[in-house]
Amino acid sequence: MITIYHNPKCGTSRNVLAEIEAAGIQPTIIRYLDTPLSKDALKQLVREMAVPVRAILRERGTPYEELDLGNAKWSDDALLDFVVAHPILLNRPIVTSPLGAKLCRPVETVHSLLPTKG
User: Fold this and answer.
1) Between the CA of residue 113 and those of 29, 62, 117, what are the distances in Å?
2) Is residue 66 part of a domain?
3) Number of domains in the chain
4) Residue 61, helix vs strand vs coil
5) Which residue from 8, 37, 62, 67 has the least number of CB within 10 angstroms?
6) What are the tens digits of pLDDT across the range 46-58?
7) pTM of the model
């Protein structure tokens, strides 16, 4: 089972989805702007990805600067609260599979999450 946290307006997200589908997989698609993730779901994603919370934040085209999120004063917990309040802050696309979870930038990153044929 593969899940993509997807923004259809994002070219990279569309290309990652196309790569998954080209591998013959119909993933679960979570349009996180339409159905925002809970704080617990975000915490789980960060755990699965084994990255710092800041690694899932998107700066461009978001209120990142306006909210001063680059400031070290914000705890991981506070940063997750900001993502819950402003889902556009979640970088995309994030893909989870039985092989792991990753932010798939660049697009080719998704290949390590897809099962090999054979």
Assistant:
1) 15, 27, 13
2) yes
3) 1
4) coil
5) 8
6) 999 999 999 999 9
7) 0.94
